[in-house]
Write a sequence for this structure.
């Protein structure tokens, strides 16, 4: 889901790490409109953005979930990492039947000293283990 908060983080990350200025359309196309679907069961989703629940969403369209929330469906998800409420990193993951793909990770350059990419990878593996234990034992690959 696109938010201004996510865009500001993406813009700062891309400029600092890749030395490129990015537009909102880049973020929307690259990281927010990435539907995963079963083409045999749901062919209509090929040209649609991911389903987004509006429960637990604030006025800025930020979705709040408990730490232990398990995705209800396969698809692309954003894992937000916050420090004292400030968004400092976002991991974009694809959850499929057999694998969890770490598609992209971005972070606030001011927090580079924290090695947030490593923290994000560890958190994704922990999340994968939780999905395996509680929801999908066939999830095999990271």
């Amino acid at each position: 889901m696109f938010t201004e908060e996510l865009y500001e983080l993406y813009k700062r990350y891309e400029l600092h790490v890749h030395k490129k200025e990015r537009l909102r359309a880049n973020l929307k196309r690259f990281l927010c409109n990435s539907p995963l679907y079963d083409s045999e069961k749901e062919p209509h989703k090929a040209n649609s953005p991911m389903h987004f629940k509006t429960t637990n969403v604030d006025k800025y369209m930020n979705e709040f979930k408990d730490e232990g929330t398990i995705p209800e469906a396969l698809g692309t998800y954003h894992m937000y990492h916050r420090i004292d409420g400030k968004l400092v990193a976002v991991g974009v993951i694809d959850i499929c039947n057999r694998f969890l793909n770490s598609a992209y990770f971005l972070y606030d350059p001011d927090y580079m000293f924290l090695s947030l990419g490593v923290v994000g990878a560890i958190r994704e593996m922990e999340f994968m283990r939780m999905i395996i234990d509680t929801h999908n034992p066939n999830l095999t690959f990271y």
